[in-house]
Each structure stands twice: as C-alpha cells, then as structure tokens.
Write a structure and sequence with these properties.
The structure holds 2 protein chains of 2 kinds. Chain A is of the alpha/beta class. Chain A has helices spanning about 50-55, 80, 100-110, 115-125, 140-150, 170-185, 195-205, 220-225, 240-245, 265-275, 290-305; strands at about 5-15, 20-30, 35-40, 65-70, 70-75, 85-90, 160, 190-195, 205-210, 215-220, 230-235, 250-255, 260, 280-285. In chain B, strand 1 and strand 2 (about 75) form a beta hairpin. The chains are: A alpha/beta, B mainly alpha. Chain B: Keywords: Membrane, Transmembrane, Transmembrane helix.
C-alpha cells in the first residue's frame, strides 16, 4: 500500500477563548491516498476543516496528534515536502498594492521556479491582460483564480483547496471544477474543502465528512451514499400504476406527479407496468445525493445520535 | 543560488516594491536636501549686494529718528547719531554665522537630519512587515517557505541592511556636500570632515537598529499601529516615567541614543546631587556615558525585542 498523501492520527486543536477552552479539532484520523483523485473534505461552518488544513500546512500548531504529508511528519519535515504541495486556504491572501503578476513572481522566486511558470500559471487561470493590474482592483473571482495560479507555480503532487470557488460566477465555477477534475485525472491528489456539495459530488471520488471537529464518515462517495433503493416512474396514470405495483407487492406512492417505487429491481417495474398496458415515459434512479447524506449525518451528529 | 540568498532577494524586491516604503525612503533623501539647503543659505557669505541692502536698511532706520531731541541735558541729534553708527548697524544686520561643521555636528543640522532619517527608516521597517500582517499575505509566503526562522531573518536582514545603506549614503553625502561648500567658503578646518563622517556612520548604525526594532516590534505585535503607538508613547512619556520612578539618566534610552550618535555624552546623576547636597561645589555630579556602554545597553534592548519577535513568529498561529 502506497504512502498516503495526507495522514493525521488523533489530531487535536484547542483554542483558548474568553469563554474558555474551545476544541476545534478532536482526535481526527484523516487519510487521503496519493496518486491522484479528488477527495472531498466536508463539514458545516466551524466544523474544523480550515483549522485542519492550516495545521497540515504549518500555519497553525496542533495541540496534540500526528500529521504526515507524503509520509513526512509535519510541521517538523514540512520544508522537505512543501514544494510538492499547493494550497489555497480560505480567502486569497496577496499584497493588495502589487500586481497579480508581481505577487506570483515573488512567490515563484521564493522557491526558485522559473519565470516561465508564472506565465504558464497566469495563462492556465486565464488572467492574461489583467495580470499587471493591482491585486486590489480584482474581483473576488479573479482573486480566487490568482490563488489557484499560485498553487500551480510549484507543479504540485498534492493540492489543498479550501473553498476554491468562492466568489466565482457559474462559468468560473465550471472552469475551476474542470481544472480540479483534470488535475485529479492527471495524477494530482486534490483535497477539496467545500460547502457546495453538488460541486463536490461532481468531482470527488472519495470524501471525508467532519462535524464539531470529529470525523463522521469517510470513504468512496459511492460507498457513502450506498446502492439505490428507490425509483421514480413517470406514467400517464399514476394512480393506476400504484395499484398495479402494489398488487405485485411493491411499495409505491404517488409523489410529485410520478410514482415513487421502493425496490432495487428496475426491470421488475417496467415489466409489471408493461404487462398492465401502462407505458413508462421516464424511469429515474432516486439515489441519495451527498447533500442529503451530509445533512442527515451532521444533523444526527448535532443531536448526538446515529445517522 | 542558496535558499537564503534567494529569500533575501525576494524580501528585498518586496521591500522596494512597497509604496509606503518608497515614500519613506524618498523622505530620507528629501529631508536632508531641504535641511542642508537651509543650512547653507543661512550661513552664506556676505555679498556686495547683501552689504548694500543692509546699509540701505540701516540708513532707512535712521530716517525714522527725529533729527533733534530735547531733554534736560540739552538737544541731541538722534538722527545724526544714528547715521554715525550706520556701518556698525550694517555689520549687525549682516551678522550670519559662517558654516562650521563642528557646530552643525554638535548641535546644528547634523543631529536633526540623523534623527529624521532614523525615524523614517524605523517607519519603513514597521510598515514593511505591518503590511504583510494587515493583508495576511504572510500566510501565503509561508506556504512557499515554511521555515519561519529563515523568513524572519531574511526580512530583518533586508530591513536593517537597507536602512544601513540608505542612512550611510544619505548622511555621508550630507556631510560631504557641507564640507565641500565649507571648503569653498574657506571655513573648513582639518579633521572636521572626518568627525562629521564618523558621526554620520554612527547615526547610520542607529538608523539600522531603529529599522530592525520597528520590524521586530511589528512582527511581535502584528500591527503597525501598535508599534508606532508604543514608540510614540515612550518618546512622549518615557523620560518622565523614568524620572518619576527615580531611574538614573544612565538608563534613559534617549540619553543613550545621544551617546551613540555623539560618541559619548555627559549626564547628571540626581542621586549624586542629593548625596552631595551638603557640600555644594565640592563634587561634580556629571557622569560620562560612553559609546560602548550606550551601544551595549541599547543593543541589549533591541536584541531582546528581536528574540521575543522571532520566538513569537515561529510559534504563534498565522492568520
């Protein structure tokens, strides 16, 4: 088994506040395999996602626990692996009076990257023409694109992206989504923290869900969501279809103008309805989406019971 | 190129691209030019035109006097007396101290220029790093170079190194220009230029230390405003506070700064004066504060602040 790109063991972070001690991350065991793919990192606001990312990148100190990037213990060995890791943490943070290009150039110079990589990064995020403008004049979407460009300066094997589509318009979101998917397919491991769950579901192969600083679930997205157990059938006469399916022992109800049927056997639905002379115009799998799963999980966590 | 030299280059580029820093570096050039120009103008030699103007003014003053004034001693021709003293009055009106480098170095424009340059460079060091914290771009920098000790050292080296070079160039140029003019006016005495240049170089060291202190404090407090507020508060109330606490002038930072720039100074010890109150005049309370003692004292303060700043930068979470 290859070394994970990210691994945390019983990771914990406490903050001292006026109200007392606050535990932001508690005993988090996170493992993201290396070798490409997009791993979603999900959780409600204040669940500890950003704090975890900041600890992994050496911006915040862990109270206890272990962290490793590509098998190297961090923060002790962070300098040895930081060149393989690109990251956008929360909102983009650049010098507002410098141009986008100068901001990138200074970061590239810090790691000895050639200037040509700055040009390439600017081109990748399609900021040609605005790269010499002051950073403060950029829209939020442009700032976000510049932050992504900064991560590309390193030619990273691991990308950690914290809400990378914040402030982007729909076209921008789509572009970033395609970029992330492309990077994942090209062998870059991406840890994608986002609250836009539909977006995560579209690009992620695996995901970790946390709540109140604790891990609630982790695994392949398909495994998390489970197999489909229901279908939606659209027919001319829903009432009659419910009667036919019910007579065959299936649980069926009229729902939103169609028929919701609880079964794992789609062929049986088409056969039963066909034999009764009811012709299907649509049959859709009712797969629980990540958002439903996430809300069920985090709500259960909030109430302190099993999902 | 080594990692550290690369980092130094990056920080230097960041330093010279920051507008506020450029404005302050510009002030380091403009202020000495203005002060120097005023100094040279105020000490310019008397020309024939100046003499004619002064004489005309002296005569005009006599025109306002009555020709004859009666008093108990008889009549006096005040206007005539005034006219008899025209040449004396003309000399009075023309009295301008000649350019004297020793005067300028000890109490004239030299200390003023050195102080203003040091303050501007302190502010440059402060605003350079304060901007990083205000924009939070420091976290982005650390994503590319996570060795925080190196980042701190590179920024500190750039801030203090740039301050040293700028101050040395500006102050050396200042004294060289004044010495050139003094020589042309035949008022330059042997050894004056060397003394003035040495004072300029000592002041350059002070400016570099001031810039380093500004940087270190701002990194510690993560706020330009906090640093300036503390320094301003100490400048305004520090001496009073120390006097109120009965602390000897020996430990007054301002006194030590004077000793550094002037290569030693004299101060008066209040405790000594109290002890000798019964024997006035028998014993002098004047104490000498040497350059070395002042450098050790202020160097220790700056060093302690730097250690605290570096430790804080390495350990605290970065926003």
């Amino acid at each position: 088994m290859s070394t994970p790109a990210i691994e945390t063991v019983r990771l914990r972070k406490e903050f001292s506040t006026r109200a007392g001690l606050r535990v932001a991350v508690q005993d988090l065991d996170l493992s993201v395999p290396a070798g490409g793919g997009v791993h979603g990192f999900l959780g409600p606001n204040g669940s500890g996602k950003t704090t975890t990312i900041r600890m992994l990148l050496g911006l915040a100190r862990a109270t206890s626990g272990e962290m490793r990037l590509f098998g190297e213990s961090v923060p002790e060995r962070l300098p040895a692996v930081i060149g393989r890791v690109g990251a956008v943490v929360e909102s983009p943070k650049f010098s507002p009076n410098f141009s986008g290009r100068l901001n990138l150039r200074l970061l590239a110079d810090a790691i000895g990257a050639p200037r040509s990589r700055v040009d390439a990064a600017i081109e990748t995020v399609q900021m040609q023409g605005r790269d010499r403008d002051r950073y403060r004049s950029y829209s939020l979407g442009m700032k976000q694109r510049l932050a992504i460009a900064a991560t590309l300066l390193k030619d990273p094997e691991l990308l950690i992206l914290d809400e990378p589509t914040n402030g982007l318009d729909p076209a921008g979101i789509r572009e970033v989504r395609e970029t992330i998917r492309g990077l994942g397919d090209a062998g870059v491991t991406v840890l994608l923290s986002s609250h836009i769950l539909a977006e995560v579901q579209q690009v992620c192969t695996s995901a970790t869900i946390i709540g109140n600083g604790r891990m609630l679930a982790s695994g392949r997205v398909e495994d998390l969501l489970g197999a489909s157990t229901a279908f939606r059938a659209v027919v001319p006469d829903p009432e009659r279809a419910v009667a036919v399916l019910g007579a065959a022992g299936l649980s069926a109800v009229v729902e939103d103008g169609g028929v919701r049927v609880e079964t794992t056997d789609a062929a049986r639905i088409t056969r039963l309805l066909g034999e009764a002379g009811i012709w299907l115009s649509e049959l859709t799998t009712l797969r629980p989406d990540l958002e439903t799963y996430f809300l069920r999980l985090t709500e259960a966590e909030r109430l302190g019971r099993e999902p | 190129m080594s990692d550290l030299s690369r980092l130094l280059r990056v920080e230097l580029a960041r330093y010279v691209h920051r507008r506020a820093v450029l404005v302050l570096l510009g002030a380091c050039l403009v202020v000495p030019v203005l002060v120097g120009a005023m100094t040279l103008w105020d000490s310019r030699p008397v020309s024939a035109d100046d003499h004619a103007l002064a004489e005309a003014r002296a005569r005009a003053e006599c025109m306002d006097r009555p020709r004859v004034h009666n008093d108990t001693a008889g009549s006096i021709d005040l206007g005539g007396l005034c006219l008899a003293r025209v040449s004396e009055r003309t000399e009075e009106l023309l009295s301008r101290p000649p350019l004297d480098l020793d005067e300028e170095r000890e109490g004239g424009s030299g200390p003023a220029v050195a102080s203003l340059v040091a303050i501007a460079l302190l502010l440059a060091g402060t605003t350079f790093t304060g901007h990083d914290w205000a924009s939070r771009s420091v976290s982005n920098q650390l994503l590319f170079e996570p060795r925080r000790g190196r980042v701190w050292a590179a920024k500190a080296a750039v801030v203090s190194g740039a301050a040293l070079v700028v101050a040395a160039l500006v102050l050396s140029s200042y004294w060289l220009v004044l010495a050139t003019v003094a020589e042309a006016r035949e008022t330059l005495r042997p050894g004056q230029l060397v003394d003035a240049l040495q004072m300029g170089w000592r002041a350059s060291g002070v400016a570099a230390a001031a810039a380093l202190l500004g940087f270190a404090m701002t990194t510690l407090f993560r706020s330009t405003v906090a640093t300036i507020g503390i320094l301003l508060g100490f400048a305004v109330a520090g001496s009073l506070l120390l006097a109120g606490l009965g602390v000897s002038e020996r430990w007054n930072p301002a006194m030590n700064l004077v000793a550094l720039i002037d290569d030693g100074t004299t101060y008066y010890d209040d405790k000594c004066a109290y002890y000798d109150a019964g024997h006035p005049g028998d014993h002098s309370c004047a104490e000498v504060l040497s350059f070395t003692d002042a450098a050790l004292y202020l160097g220790t303060i700056v060093g302690l602040v730097c250690v605290a700043s570096d430790r804080s930068f390495r350990r605290r979470d970065v926003p």
